[in-house]
Specification:
globular, 8-stranded mixed sheet, 22 strands, alpha+beta, 10 helices, PmbA/TldD fold
């Protein structure tokens, strides 16, 4: 049997607004792109000249900064910039895609012709609407007062040094510390053949510490990190560099005393946050619409059917302010919505992008996502989580006579068949309703549909 501890997450903002004219946003103003709307419309029309049901253009401008500190010195500091454009043409279920980082008229023409060649047909050219509509968010998924990109480098170096010092000074057994700071900002502009024009700006910042402890010939590592679509004040109010450094060191020291994990079936209690890792891999990917419509997901025919405990409700919400998976518009320019995937054990929905929703005759959910401008969008998760349950977390642990409490997972994988494997970085034995000795190198294995039905308690 399996039990979950989940703490409630903040609800997101929802809203819709439309207007014609220049684009304004409540958060960060997107950077200017080197092309006009009229140039993009001309390119779209060319892309549809050989036939095609739909076309869109995705422009991206991305900047990033990274800092790495180890062995007492800042070893690396790097800045990067990338920009480019991807053009997609769709006819029925066929997709043509081409991209470039050259915005010259000749290259735009080449990209349009390349994408359209894959979807060429004898049909008439589709005409663009005369008027394009601009969308803007009512709320904003960013939470910041001090935007990271606008702050001096020395301020970020100080965060890194503080985290490094906190980890190194935590315990004499700490022998090595590595601190990584990263920030990025992605500006996008999506224009499509249905007359949609959307801009969005997505800042992100993260501070991560890895600490290595050594004792009596044994070496163990601990990890902790924090961040999101937030400003640098996040590291003053919510997770200080000292907290992040000390937590990484504490985990490394705990693992020095950890015992090998026992084998066999037992009750498993998943800690807050990391239960989401299991749900993300073992359930979330199987409810992404491209896997569903191609029938490669074990859940492709489970809509409306009971697949798990009635205590289990799973949602995906791209609108939670400050979360790294959040966005005001997806990479197809669609407004994202909080989507119920499983409610009281019943599959209630799938994560949709434009193409899948069209082929499946469902409403888009705003989950069309790209790695960058070189990739076409796919329906993928944002912030996937188990909804709150009725049990107090301590009550769940007290109910277990013998079991395993999972504090942190390092990742896992799931087969199309539903079989999953997850690695436990840090866990604790549960003995007579109390947390006992720490354990390491545990592996959770099972089948997702089997384990969903065995959930007994949700925190």
């Amino acid at each position: 049997m399996s039990k979950f501890i989940l703490f409630p997450r903040q609800k997101g903002l929802e809203g819709k607004n439309e207007f014609h004219g220049s684009i304004k946003m409540s958060g960060i103003k997107p950077r200017e792109f080197p092309l006009s709307l009229s140039e993009l419309k001309k390119t779209l029309q060319l892309a549809l000249a050989r036939g095609g049901d739909f076309a869109d253009i995705f422009l991206e401008y991305r900047t990033s900064l990274s800092i790495l500190m180890e062995e007492g010195i800042v070893k690396e500091s790097a800045e990067s910039l990338s920009s480019g454009l991807g053009l997609r043409v769709i006819r029925k279920d066929i997709t043509g895609y081409a991209y470039t980082n050259d915005f010259s008229p000749e290259k735009l023409k080449s990209v349009a012709l390349s994408a359209s060649a894959i979807c060429a047909s004898s049909g008439a050219s589709r005409k663009l609407p005369g008027r394009f509509r601009h969308h803007l968010p009512r709320g904003d998924i960013t939470r910041f007062r001090m935007q990271a990109a606008s702050r001096p480098l020395e301020e970020k170096l100080e965060l890194v040094r503080r985290a490094y010092s906190a980890a190194m000074n935590f315990d004499p057994s700490i022998k090595k510390v590595q601190v990584a700071y990263g920030e990025s900002r992605q500006d996008i502009w999506v224009v499509n053949s249905e007359g949609l024009s959307v801009m969005d700006s997505r800042p992100a910042v993260r501070l991560v510490v890895m600490a290595v402890a050594e004792k009596d010939g044994r070496r163990e590592s601990g990890f902790c990190g924090g961040g999101g679509r937030v400003g640098l004040e996040y590291f003053r109010r919510e997770m200080t560099p000292e907290f992040i450094g000390e937590e990484a060191a504490r985990e490394a020291c705990l693992l020095l005393e950890a015992v090998e994990a026992p084998a066999g079936e037992m009750t498993v209690v998943l800690g807050p946050g990391h239960s989401g890792v299991l749900i993300h891999e073992a359930v979330g990917h199987l409810l992404e619409a491209d896997f569903v419509r191609k029938k490669t997901s074990i859940l492709w025919n489970k809509l409306g059917k009971l697949v798990g405990s009635e205590q289990l409700s799973v949602y995906d919400d791209p609108t939670i302010p400050g979360f790294l998976g959040s966005y005001n518009f997806d990479d197809e320019g669609q407004k994202p919505v909080k989507t119920a995937l499983i409610e009281k054990g019943v599959v209630t929905g799938f994560l949709q992008d434009w193409l899948s929703s069209r082929l499946m005759k469902k409403e888009p959910t705003g989950h069309g996502r790209r790695q960058d401008y070189t990739c076409w969008p796919l329906p993928r998760m944002s912030n996937t989580y188990i909804d709150r349950g009725e049990y107090d977390p301590e009550e769940i642990i007290r109910s277990v006579r013998k079991g395993l409490y999972v504090s942190r997972l390092s990742g896992g994988q799931v087969e199309d068949s539903g079989e999953f494997t997850f690695s436990v970085t840090l866990g604790y034995l549960i003995e007579n309703g109390r947390l006992g000795r720490p354990v390491k190198q545990a592996t959770l294995i099972g089948h997702n549909l089997d384990i969903l039905k065995k959930i007994e308690m949700v925190g």
